[in-house]
Amino acid sequence: PNTAEWVTERLAGHLAAMLPADGTGPAIRLRSVTATFGASYIASEAAFAIAAHAALTAYADAAAQGPVDAVLIGCFGDPGLHALREIAPVPVLGLAEASIDEAGRCGRFAIVTGGRAWQPMLTRIVGLFGHAHRLAGITVIDRSGGELAADPAGARRLLTAACRDAALPGVDCIVLGGAAFAGYGDLIAPDVPVPVIDSVSAAARALRARF
């Protein structure tokens, strides 16, 4: 739902590495699509609303090229999720819903993501998914996905510190949310005292469970 091709590439690469392609399950082939309009990084209510429209358009364009068996919205926040479910004849999944549902089964959870505007937006989204009573807190970092991508070692240190800070008493797991953060949750998990759920990895598990 955003226009940053590098985010699409990172997301698709991490998903492809996690999806069956070696005979351990049905092969899942990815067709990645980047929004043709909207923000390169969704960081406001207005950008989120535009991203929902962009996701609908992206799905229509992709479906016109041939049938698909499922749709995954590649944005932590899942813009357009319910609208896509209304029009698509196949399962529609989102990074936020997949990871928040997984975290809810773990117990009380905190979320670590990027962008100050996401704090109230995610509070609302978690409530819509029925997990408000399990949300222990939301930690946001100020650096953009592009800045973090330019400094992978620094990004790992920053995200590790943020997740460790979020792992307060009573927190059973951490959701690291964001398509741009694909793979970081799995990297930093050994250095965090509670399980870390990478939102893209959670989406891959949810996708595998559909087939």
Structure description:
The protein is α/β, with parallel strands linked by helices. It has 9 helices and 6 strands. 47% of the residues lie in helices and 12% in strands. The strands form 2 sheets. The chain has a 4-stranded parallel sheet, sandwiched between helices. Strand 3, helix 5 (118-128) and strand 4 form a beta-alpha-beta unit. The two termini are 24 Å apart. The mean pLDDT is 92.
Structural class: alpha/beta
CA radius of gyration: 16 Å
Gap between N and C termini: 24 Å
Strand content: 5-15%
Mean pLDDT over the residues: 92
Which key features would you list for this structure?
211 residues; alpha/beta; two-stranded parallel sheet; 47% helix; globular
Describe this structure in a few short sentences.
This protein is of the alpha/beta class. The protein is built from nine helices and six strands.
How are the SSEs ordered, and which strands pair?
Blueprint: H1 5-18, H2 45-64, E1 71-73, H3 81-87, E2 92-94, H4 95-106, E3 109-114, H5 118-128, E4 135-141, H6 145-149, H7 152-166, E5 173-176, H8 184-188, E6 196-198, H9 199-209
Parallel strand pairs: 1-2, 3-4, 3-5, 5-6
Helix pairs in contact: 1-9, 4-9
